[in-house]
Amino acid sequence: MKLLFSCSLLLFITAACLSGSASSRKLRGISSSYKRFYRERRSFLCIDGSRVIPFEQVNDDYCDCEDGSDEPGTSACPRGRFYCTNLGFRPHYIPSSRVNDGICDCCDASDEYNSHARCQNSCWNLGQKERAYVEGQMRTLDEGLQLKQQLIEEGVLLWREKQAQLRELQQVAEDLQIKLEEHRRRKQEAEQNLKALEAGHTRVRRQNSSESTFRLLDSNNDGSLSVEELQEKLVLVQEEELLLSEEEAVALMGGGRQMDLPMFQQSLWDVLNTEERVKIRGSVDAEDPHLKAADTAAEREASSLKKVEEAYDTISMEISDLRTKLAIDYGPDWEFLFLNSQCYKLSVYEYTYTLCPFNQVTQESAAGTEVSLGRWGMWAGTPKNPYSQMVYENGEPCWQGGSRSTTVTLTCGTETALRRVKEPSKCQYIMDFQTPVACQTVLKQRGIHSEL
Amino acid sequence: MATFTERMAPVLVLWLAVFLSGTWAVDKGNFKTCDQSSFCKRQRALKPGESPYRALLETMELTNTRLTLQLINDNNKVRLLLELYRLQGNMTRVKINELKPLKPRYEVPDVLIREPPTEPLSLLSQDENGVVLSLGAESQRVILSARPFRLDIMEGRDVVMSLNSRGLLAFEHLRMRKDTSQADPEAEKKEEAEPETQPEAAKEEEKDEAGMWEETFKSHTDSKPNGPSAVSLDFSLPGVEHVYGIPEHADTLRLKTTENGDPYRLYNLDVFQYELYNPMALYGAVPVMLAHNAQRTTGIFWLNAAETWVDISSNTAGKTVFGKMLDYVQGSSETPQTDVRWISESGIIDVFIMLGPTPKDIFSQYASLTGTQAFPPLAAVGYHQCRWNYNDQEDVAAVDAGFDEHDIPYDYIWLDIEHTDGKRYFTWDPHKFATPKEMLQGLMDKKRKMVAIVDPHIKVDCNYKIHNEIRSRSFYIKNKDGGDYEGWCWPGSAGYPDFTRTDMRDWWASMFAYDQYEGSMENLYTWNDMNEPSVFNGPEVTMHKDAMHGAWEHRDVHNLYGFYVHMATAEGLIQRSGGVERPFVLTRAFFAGSQRYGAVWTGDNAAEWEHLKISIPMCLSLGLVGISFCGADVGGFFKSPNTELLVRWYQTGAYQPFFRAHAHLDTPRREPWLFGPENTALIREAVRQRYTLLPYWYLQFYNAHRTGEPIMRPLWVEYPQDPATFALEDEFLIGRDLLVHPVTEEGARGVTAYLPGKDELWFDVHTFQKHNGAQSLYIPVTMSSIPVFQRGGSIIPRKIRVRRSSSCMTHDPYTLYVALNPQRTAEGELYIDDGHTFNYEKEFIHRRLSFASNLLSSVNLAPDAQFSTRSWIERIVILGASKPSKVILKTDDGQESQVEFDFDASMSVLTVRKPGMNAGADWSLMLQ
Description:
Oligomer: heterodimer
Strand order of the largest sheet of chain B: 50-49-53-47-46-45-43-44-48-52-51
Largest sheet of chain B: 11 strands, mixed
Strand content of chain A: 15-25%
Protein name (chain A): Glucosidase 2 subunit beta
Shape of chain B: globular
Mean pLDDT of chain A: 84
Organism (chain A): Eleginops maclovinus
Structural class of chain B: alpha+beta
Helix content of chain B: 10-25%
Domain MRH (chain A): 341-441
Radius of gyration of chain A: 45 Å
CATH superfamily of the domain at 337-446 in chain A: Mannose-6-phosphate receptor binding domain
Largest interface: A-B, 35 and 33 residues
Number of helices of chain B: 17
Keywords (chain A): Calcium, Coiled coil, Disulfide bond, Endoplasmic reticulum, Metal-binding, Signal
Radius of gyration of chain B: 29 Å
Number of strands of chain B: 53
Strand order of the largest sheet of chain A: 9-10-11-12-13-14-16-15
Domain EF-hand (chain A): 205-240
CATH class of the domain at 337-446 in chain A: Mainly Beta
């Protein structure tokens, strides 16, 4: 700050010395560092060395030098530039074409010395604003850098925590793996046991004669099966509690209401042997409690295996998620890590935009439709500062091909927030995202840098 | 910011249904072929050589100003009335209408700038076969033959043009519908008069019945309450092999024969992704054709605003060059001849035959009928930056700043439809453009301007002032049942104001007043798009032909709609300034006479090399028929150009009259600085070349405004006797003195430019290298090359201090480029005015600059005009000069002074340093 101020003061003195002197025309539009080229002599050498011209032709509103150096103070040269001293503010060059074009470009009004434009000297105001702005920026930067330090520390902790979490999860996964194998083995054993018993049972069933089954069903032993007898003895495999309806019983009897043994052997006997949905009430249980126990055991083992498998899958997913997360570049000090799993919103006109760093960007309309504006792609800043820009890609497809994408520019600020969203071209969004972790120590130097 | 579906919801379904064909190109099926247009099909089926029309010589009346005569159709006995006028300026007008039509037939109003003044006709001889009339003092005669009726326009012993020589005159008389009227008086008459031909005639009418009273295309039915009403006439052009004009078509400059396909169609249509090199109708229609050979140029102006088809055939079209040579050697060659046939759906035949004989005579003849190019404000000749859409005020400010940052000049930034509040024209989006005056003031502070779109479709919304006013005044076009016609367009359901009404146009113009058009300021100008009119759900994306404009059907006036929208808008911009300021209005649809109201562009082109190429013939064709202020969207509207194409398009556009970059909503940004510093520099240089030449461009506009001559012109206009120029369309002239051969090939290493004129010299404007005329010159090119040549014998004024905008350059000094011809002479003009008001009619500087005998002088061409300028002459560059010993300037006060100079012997270029005289003064410069 002090440096800028004192330089301006120096310029002020120089300008004051020059004003009113006969050579002011010659010196118009020249910075002090270039003054050595314009010492009053008989001739003037174009700065590119291409030509020597009489000194009267400097700033005489005619372009003699290819490089425009003979007309620093007029609009005569297409490639020329005019130096605005801008006492009190930043000095800078403008193209010669802006000299006397009726538009005030230099805040000291020096570019419009021969035009109808009424330019006010606004350099002190601008300078003050600039200084206030720079001060503000510096404060922000200082604060931001402090916050950043905290966030870095938090980031490191978070990183360690996540690493620990990963290790923990991996341990759990390993344990589960062992358990899984154990359960698989047990399930297999139970199943084998059940299969063996079932095979024996089938053989038993096959050995039962049609006569004995007929007798079993013929409750009143009258040599004929009735609808009521079937309803009493037969059940649906799926729903043992429910009685067969009369219609179902009639249907099993082939439409009649009575059935003798020969008819039974021709029809219902085959049905009972092949139809798996109908069985004789209590037949199996009653016949083989071992089978039933084996069946229950097999079911129990299968279900506990499933539970372990599910647990394992969940853990694996968590590990994979965490690995993906940890594979992302969160900056040299993991300072951007805290942004992961956060989301930031901003409403612009009828839309609400949500940026979930390292995850995705979405746009929600007032009507509630949500559209993806891209998923985390990569860092895309400058080679010098790769962390100044993020790209989110492969969002919702666009009408004429391609898909939506978002470029997020990170700027230094004291809080973390989404500041601006734009769609300069269809389906290409840009966002300004402010966060202390984007604060860079280099910025600090630029703030006090001066031309002189 | 919206997703496509949300933003486009109202029109999405339509767009998808109507326009998206899945492939990249126009969906031809959406537009009619001649076969699908019943009148065209009927008329085209007529066989030549069977004309039923006979002139009834006994009905001839010859007054001082016109000849009238009845024609009879011997098949149906319907009589027509022929009127023949000799017009001042070597033109003949032929009008044919029904003698007693059932109801009046539409005659196009408002296109002619006045009733064309006539000259006396005199009868030279007459017998039972016909009459011979003299056309004024020259040896021109008209021979009117009676049976069949035919007109031959003769010059000496040569036939210049014949009408109905192939017997294709056809006039579908208005008639009662058969099922509604038993007693057809004509049929009765026919029976009485010629009972023997009756069966044949009846058969013919039966055959023709299809499509006469109702016609369906796709899902649209045209109710055709007036039945068939087409008119048609053929013209023969002996000795002619080259015909031009009848824009707008995306086709070659030289029109093709149409025997093997559809005729050229003139029917203003919003064609989505138009295809190149075919005769399909586009956004505008100018029914004017030019015919040219080495001896003579003639023109045909067919004044009819209904759907029109033009057939062209030629007896040499099929022949190869060898075949033609063989004919010549064997001496068996028949005279080459082009035959043209015009077919219109309704109205009358009203045709102006422009007899030249030079191309420039044609331009002045046509200008005397329909007027000349509006003289635009100077800024409009600068560069225009457009995009669908600049999103908000911040965006506009950022783009504006981008031009300054990259030191590229521009004059106008444009806003497309998204700037409005829900596509309600004359309004602003309350969020994105909340403070339009602030924005406009910001531009004004930089001496820049803005164009905002105002389309003619009006959102049907009872909270919208414009709609309510139009509805309450009953200004909307009506549908066939008498209600307000409604169609779909950008806003959804929309009404279409009836611009054919004078009171409607007056009201519309009043809406541009600063207190009516809120947020507007004097640096806001207007763009009329979609004025064909575009109706998304209408037949062929336009209005139903049975919609009603008062007593007339849309069928009758269709091609005039855009013309009237443009007229009313331009009038609005004039009125808001109390008649002081020149308007600038761009239109997409146009008709004959549209040149009087502003600029046109070639519509929604695409970012493809072929589209860049065709911008040349498309604008050349428009220039030939009076519309000089023409341009194509730089970069291409649809799709995204690669960098090379974008740079080449800037380089080409910088040398075309209307220079505007534009891009579709769905394409990535393409402001000039987005393609790396090298390409930014190339584009900057192209735009800067445009700005250095603004004094020359402005002079061309002034001359176009005074004479009707095209600004961008084909070479044959200046070299009418050199057949090598007749079909050139990859190069063109700006005025007389600059020849431009832009690079329009991808990856080009060189171009071959034809430099015309065997006595001419051409100077490369960049290197000052001299080339002889009448040669094809190979020019090696790099990405920075824009081959441009200045004609030896010309003087071109430039302003080489290129600034932010044209207005910033107002007081800048001039550099004169004097290019000497072999006789070591040169001539040019300098025109200066205030650049934006109508005061130019009295207050301007117009000087002739001439160089002869080593003396360059400036002479006042308009001593009565008053204007003073601060501009002076800073430099004079003489190309092809020899080294003088001294250069002496003599100013108007008689003072003589020696002026410094620099001589480049290798290129023979003399540069006179800072002579310093005022650009408006008399002076002379002597080389000794």
